[in-house]
Amino acid sequence: MSDATATPAPPRRRGINLHVLGPLLALIVLIVLGASLNSNFLSAGNVTNVLARSAFIGIIAVGMTFVITAGGIDLSVGSMAAFVAGVMIMAMNWLIPVMGVNWGVILIGMAVALATGFFAGWLNGFLIAKINIEAFIVTLGSMGIYRSLVTWLADGGTLSLNYDLRSLYRPVYYDGPLGVAWPIVVFALVAILGELAMRHTAFGRHCAALGANEQVARYSAVKVDRARMATYALLGMLVGLATIMYVPRLGSASGSTGVLWELEAIAAVIIGGTVLKGGYGRVWGTVVGVLILSLIDNILNLASIVSPYLNGAIQGVIVILAVVLQRERKAAE
Amino acid sequence: MTEPVLALDNVSRSFGPIEVLHGVSFDLRPGEVHALIGENGAGKSTMMKILGGYLAPSSGTVRLDGEAVRFADLREAEAAGIIMIHQEFNLALQLTVEENLFLGRERKRGPLLDHRKMQDEARRLLARLESDIDPRARVADISVPARQMVEIARALGRNARVLIMDEPTAVLTNRETDILLKQIDRLRDQGTAILYTSHKLDEVSRIADRVTVLRDGTKVLDAPAEGLTEHRMAEAMVGRELTDMFPDKPAPGGEVVLDVRDLSVPGHVENASFTLRRGEVLGFAGLVGAGRTELMEGIVGLRPTTGSVTIMGRPLKPGSVLAAREAGLVYLTEDRKEKGLLLGKNLRENLTLLALDRFTRIRIDKAAEDEALSRAFDEFDIRAGDREMDAGNLSGGNQQKLLLAKTMLAEPDIVIIDEPTRGIDIGTKQQIYQFIRRLADGGKSVIVVSSELPEVIGLANRVCVMRRGTIAGELEGSEIGEDSILRLAMGLGANEKVTA
């Protein structure tokens, strides 16, 4: 180590700590608040309920973290989830006469969901990275396209999974290893792998470089287009994974499936401290963001102080506060 | 003789600890075209910005009509009739010509815009410049010289008494330049004071009444243009003595490591061919805009090209920076803030970005990265207050050293360094020169692109001079000199005297 490092660092740590701890503190405050308002809040049933419901948005939000960190945005994920669910249900229903009601059908359905999600995400990425259309425009377009496609596939109504198959598939949402529901397990795995990928792999580093300054990345021999497409394809695949967890819950898909999921996912990413214009992202923050959003919803439903109808308003305030916090960090530097 | 309208009185300006303008006095008179020339980094831009109200002097006074003034910002300067036209235009591309002309001072009738009045006025302004630009055209749709005209019309519309033009002809063709010079003549006749900078000395002799030469932040010449030859101007610009800033340069070894044949970068470079030998430092000189940077970016795959690049006998896959790096060729950009470093990221992440795969086996090895940073600190004498600080908080010189360290981490055989010492102090410059020499002595090959002639002359074994997108000539050994380089760069024939 050289002598130069002995020089004292400029004092700027406090702002960063607040920035790092802010979302965590908010989460803790919410948990304490929830526990003091309702004794059922910390019961196993409620905790499982909150976590399992968070899992869909959470899995998608982890993918969204990569997209936003790389300087992109994806508005289509809610519609994409509905479309993937529709395709998955149709594929499984179509296979039942051929294969009967068994796990083979469900596994093929899962593969179809992952593949459909991957392809849909890849297409977004291709249009954005290779054809050079703005991410906002591309995904605004595909948001409308997927929403409309699923409505069309359902002929304006609902696509329902075959009743027998649904009974077989149901445990994927409600059961799991050691009594922990599968969505929670999968969400935890996705979050851990995502955090590792963001923090400790070249892919994560490249995403941040891309979002911070695409030119620098290009001049540093980063395959800019490929990395950008990879973020969207990854997000698409995670949408497929979330759908796999979602379908057994209701066993159906319609034009109103997954409405506003994209905004919830983006809000969770921002609350978690990822910078909206890219260059810096953290997956654990996103997980905290998702939990904060679900807890607000849950507390409003359990306690009768504030009407649950105000849920959206409170979440909105939190998102704006989170961004104000980001700005204060910048000003402090 | 008329009284000066705008003058500097013993003005200095520092950026941080570095003073870039040392006690310059200067005056600008109505009805006079005053050319300001000097090498890059001589302090021209700083001086123009002080005159135009963008920068305040660190010491000394700016005088308007003999009165000391201090402009708070450029709006105040514009209100006083001082208008500066930048090299990069200050126009809103999506708005029409007319909207641009009246931006910020729209003509109104009641609460509504008075479109008819603005259009009439716009037409009148453009007619004064004998320009047939349609005021309703979007600026994005008109040509670059037409935009230049719009800028001038805007200045006229604001009743400019002083017009400051920063290399207005750098983007123009010869014919367009002729038109512009005619307009400048007309403005002079109308009594406008014009400050004009250009690297093209023939233009300066044609248009200027008076010439001021800056060198290293000091005024070295202030004389009537009449009787001042181009040779004399060039001499005054570069006339600094070459001290032992530069290490000795032994003759390069042997085989050709890089062979560029008929390389074209559409719109910038045509059919450039040259070779580079092991252990050689090859200089690339030329005026700004001659296509040097574009050629180098084309070679390493940052721009689409036609032609061939061969490294150690193997053809290089075009269009891939990664392929170039793997073949041992790296390019160090001239624009370290926008293209070289991630200013908001820490030193470690910046250092390893180019060679990240060397630190990665699925996971990034952060301990190895830290070690590399320590080594870079020692080897390149990077002075950082704190290992965790952002690259953007380093001084310019240390940023440049970090960029060098980052590039060398890829262990290249051939290094292209574009403007190795732009905007850094003299001590760091010398360190970088020695580093480049060490590279060559160690068997690597280096291309140095530089607009600073002493740098090219002091470092290079051989110099290619570019002019308007082609390699105008190659100089070796004792042929290398300021005079010979400038002659090629400005397109004067080999036998033609610079004074012609």
How many β strands of chain A by DSSP?
2
Poorly predicted regions of chain B: 494-500
- State the strand order across the main sheet of chain A: 1-2
Whole-Å distance between the termini of chain B? 31 Å
By CATH, the superfamily of the largest domain in chain B comes out as P-loop containing nucleotide triphosphate hydrolases
* H/E topology pattern of chain A: HHHHHEHHHHHHEHHH
Determine the structural class of chain B based on helices, strands and strand pairing.
alpha/beta
Integer average pLDDT of chain A = 88
Derived from helix and strand composition plus strand pairing, the structural class of chain A reads mainly alpha
CATH C-level label of the largest domain in chain B: Alpha Beta
Helix share, percent of chain B: 25-40%
User: Total number of helical segments of chain B?
Assistant: 17
Largest sheet of chain B: 6 strands, mixed
Taking pLDDT < 50 over at least 5 consecutive residues as the criterion, the unreliable ranges of chain A are 1-15
**Largest protein interface?**
A-B, 29 and 38 residues
Question: Strand order across the biggest sheet of chain B?
Answer: 6-9-10-3-11-12
Share of residues in strands of chain B = 25-35%
| Gap between N and C termini of chain A | 25 Å
The largest sheet of chain A is: 2 strands, antiparallel
Compute the number of strand runs of chain B: 24
